[in-house]
Write a structure and sequence with these properties.
There is one protein chain. By secondary structure, this protein is an alpha+beta fold. The protein has helices at 8-18, 62-88, and strands spanning 39-42, 57-60, 104-106, 112-114. It has one domain. It has two helices and four strands. It has a two-stranded antiparallel ribbon with strand order 1-2. Strands 3-4 form a two-stranded antiparallel sheet. The two termini are 39 Å apart.
Length: 117
């Protein structure tokens, strides 16, 4: 699935709604003017079903956009993908060494043998 970007019409409407200020939720009502280029971010990430609409658009300065993406969006998207794989019955990655799923057993004397399956 490809990322759905905001249309120019939505970007203009969002910038006018924000009055040229950053809408970062961490500012707690104290929004600052955007001096550099404005970034347009999905409130609900596109990967989690967020639509490219005005209601889901947030105007951010680049620093706040980077912070929101790294602290909030990336972990939420990763968790969503893990849940989706779990529901589909997909086991990801290699099994932890020494567990029954790995197929290897380490004896008390240090020998490593294949576990009987």
């Amino acid at each position: 699935m490809t990322r759905r970007e905001f249309s120019d019409k939505v970007k203009i409407a969002a910038f006018q709604r924000a009055n040229g200020c950053c809408e970062c939720p961490t500012h707690k009502g104290k929004h600052h003017k955007i001096i550099t280029t404005a970034h347009y971010d999905h409130i609900v990430p596109d990967a989690l079903g967020g639509e490219p609409t005005l209601d889901n658009c947030m105007v951010l300065d680049p620093r706040c956009h980077r912070m929101k993406t790294n602290k909030l969006d990336v972990p939420a998207i990763a968790k969503g993908k893990r849940i989706e794989k779990k529901r589909a019955g997909i086991k990801s990655g290699r099994p932890m060494a020494g567990t029954k799923r790995s197929g290897i057993q380490k004896k008390m004397d240090g020998r490593v043998i294949w576990r009987d399956r």
